[in-house]
Amino acid sequence: MTEKQEVYYELLVLRCQQGRKDALEELIKTWEKRLYYFIRRLLNNEQEAWQVLQETWISVLKGIPRLREPRKLPVWLYSTARKTALYHIRTKYTEKSLIKEVENSITVEEWEQNSVFEDAEQVHYGLDKISLQHREVLTLFFLRELSIYDISEVLNVPIGTVKSRLFYAKQALRNALVDEEK
Asked: Is residue 100 part of a domain?
């Protein structure tokens, strides 16, 4: 994220904290598609994703007056969306334990060099076939809004775990796409 973006986010948050309606509308307009896309990758149902997005906005509107680091708006928004989606999943389905993975030392550059997915429709199909844990890390990574460090904050896991999840998520996505081709 650039310095200019950070300043923009800070000013937007400050205007929202002042209760300015135009700032809240701008916040929603700016982030709605990105948050919906992220939530949609976590949930398999479009209607549920819209519902969770609405619940996310309610949480955001309630929480924005207490946001202490306005420059971290993207991390805070994705964290709020993730928490809301996971809460929705837990209440709708029985809670499933997530797989704990061993930290891996693969670098992001290696991951990017080895990942070329050309057909967006295939990628979306493949994302629906892999685990929630893998979907969320790939979605956050491909949105390109967040660094590996920021993703670790959103997911509340160490940086090494993010890298490991990216590595295994890439393999899972590739396997799902290969299975689809067969």
From this structure: no
